Amino acid sequence: MTSQNSFAKLLLKDDSLVLLDQNAIMHFFSCSEMKQERGKVYYKITAKKVKNALRVKTDFAIIGIKGTVFIVKSDEKNRAVLLQEGLVQIDSIKEEFALYKKRVNEEFNKFKTMQNDGFENFKKSQYEKVAMVKSFDLHAMNKVVFDGNKVKEDDFQTSDNKEFEYFQQLNDEI
Question: What domains does the chain contain, in order, with CATH numbers?
């Protein structure tokens, strides 16, 4: 547990790195299972065999990790997973997620050309519901934001890259 203006750097025995930002709470249940209750946590996990894959539980999802670099934000207003490298599997704790993915630019341009009159309405709805899923994979350089059972998948933005830069700097300083 970290408090205001405090941070924690955890080196696991397999050389994986876990950095807790201020006001974060994490519980370890075993070498392969932990629960992030609150806060922002950076994970740099070394490659794991599927049998020993690390699992991080949150109040909104269970994240299955093999070897990857990602950040989990878990507080009342901000629930998100930002994946920089690798692949994570995200499982629902309760009901299925309504998974929304950002539409492909090609599709957007085709739509704009064909229906210029409806362009403004289309811009307001950049996401399309793909499916109801109990589990899905998140690929590198993408993020998902949780709002109840709605999950929006999107590409990284400049602010997301800054999140990783922040933790890299924190790691260098600790």
Answer: 8-92+134-173 (2.60.120.1440)
